[in-house]
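note to self: dont lose this again. the chain is below, predicted strucutre after it. 715 aa total, dont forget to put it in the shared folder this time
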Amino acid sequence: MDTHEALNRLADVAGIEARYWDIHGQLHETTPETTRILLRAMGIAADSDEDIFASLAKFENEPWQTPLPPVVVARENGEIGVAIRLPNGTKTLRWSVYLELGGLRTGECDLETLPVEDTRQRGENQVLLRRLKLPPLPLGYHNLRLATMDGAGCRLIVAPERCYLPAVLSGHRCWGVAAQLYALRSPQDWGIGDFGDVQELVNQAAARDADAVGLNPLHALFLDTPDYASPYSPCSRLFRNPLYLDVTAVPDFAECDEARALVDAPENARLLQAARDASYVDYKAVAHIKLAVLECLFRNFDVKHSAGGDVRRTSFRGFEKRNGRDLDRFATFQMLSEHFQTHDWMRWPVVCRDPESAPVAELCNRHAERLSFYKYLQWLCDEQIGATAELARQRGMAIGLYNDLAISVEGASADHWAHQDLFAGGARVGAPPDPFNETGQEWGVVPLNPFRLRATGYAHFIALLQANMRHSGALRIDHVMGWQRLFLIPAGEKPAAGAYVRYPIDDLLAIAALESQRHRCMLIGEDLGTVPDGFRERMAAANVLSCRILAFERDHDRYRRPSEYPPLASVSAATHDLATLPGFWIGADIAAKARLGLFKSADEESRAWSDRANDKRRLLQALVEEDLFPRTDTDNVDWTPELAKAAHVYLARTQSLLFMVQLDDLAGETSQANLPGSTSEHPNWRRRHARSVTNLLSDTATQSELTAIAGTRAK
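---
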């Protein structure tokens, strides 16, 4: 085997695909240079010919070094097959399974009755591969132990076949309101939407028979650079953004004279009012005011609730214990970011880039109070989100909170620092050319390493699902195709240098089904863009709802009619990356791209306007054919409340299980939340609603739209 063949073989066993077809039907071959870089990013040496052959040999030999694999994922009610590799001559095997919820299953088998599937020489011993058959086990995370070979063990995960769906969805089509949390407004907000505003949105939506309230990702961002506000480029997906806290609702606020005096101080009162009145979130001002007051509240809590039997102290301790090492490391990252005046941990002293180092431990001891403060913030977030979820249940919402899990985290993030071995740090996640971007996309986030995920029993993936399903009735999985394959780009390169890497979809989907059932949380897979053949069918078989967006649901020159939408789907008019309905109608997105120079030529801009005019005519034709809008001159129709209602009822008529109406559309917003291809040139993730949640949903036109939606979904 020559070096070229060996590199290709190594790439294949590592999951790097040799080629892909883009959305235009063009074939892209993965170059040897890209292959080597991505292998290195996954911790696989491939720089020299010797490295390639050694890494290939390691791949082939590594499974034979231990009797058991690190993890086995099986389905419920079925016999479980476990690959075992034991020296020739081992006659009898005794095994024990320690069940997650207590209890023990044991057994013994005659190895000679099990067929030999493969053999390998290891030193002087011949090792035989057989498959141990275990009886069906209950759902959960169990541990298998062998009585031979020093008690070798592995994690056994037994999962259901399908994800959870609320019983109410049988014969009932649900609907909800989707919002960007930061955009919510109320008379008492602090310049940004907060969890108190979400509670008001829940109350208003529930009063109109909505089943869900959808939110942008609530992940923790970077407190030292609050202007870096994309919820899809988080600091941690395990924890939440404390800038969303409703400070005055924290019990400590009523107890703390210092905090109330700080809020009432003339300079702070002026800053607070300016932030409240602004059309865009001033993240620096919000962070300055909120964090200062929250520090006061923490000091008050630490003094007044220090007793061991104190109810709130007990709750805080329970939160610390439940989140354990992950919370410790996240708080440590926050403290170190403050200490070194940057969250970019690659600029920290080398010794502090290692979470386990002695200098990090010393700094933790020296700044223990700051660690507690950052843990306190996360505890408050969990309390307020939990209270909001409980309110949704009390108001009879069938789903409740519909949350969002971003595809990954920033390279300079807390999650990456805390779990460096789990990430392919030398690569970034992106997308090949598609309708969003003709040259492809690089999203700036680091991918998880599929081999390390499996080697660690999927512990981090499980923790991610648990953290984000907690208090959720539905969870949207951003770019769910990443569970099967991710488009990885060598760090610092353009998307053209990228390649697809395979991920263990069967295992990830099984674990998602287990956590979905346990948390009674339905899953929506964001499956837009380049979708592999058969992927949507596979997700549907597991009860994962597809995302169906009006703009993309077309057959050539016509919009798909409501009866043509699939049942197992979540339908909406657009996403945060697309124009709102009013913005689409007036071409606000096209105008913004032109203003920012995002078109390659004047001809491209002209085509965009021409295509938009055609799209509007096609949409009007669809509404007319559904008897939702009068037949009229399709070239001279303004956006009106009547047209807005017609478009929403059109989507409400779909047979899909869930329809989410965007609050931006109800508010008549023309500027989209995020304009792909722009950064500081467009106010991404900053635009606030002009009116409060209460005022907006009490508006006569909005009431009429919501009544029509609710009535249509109830039919």
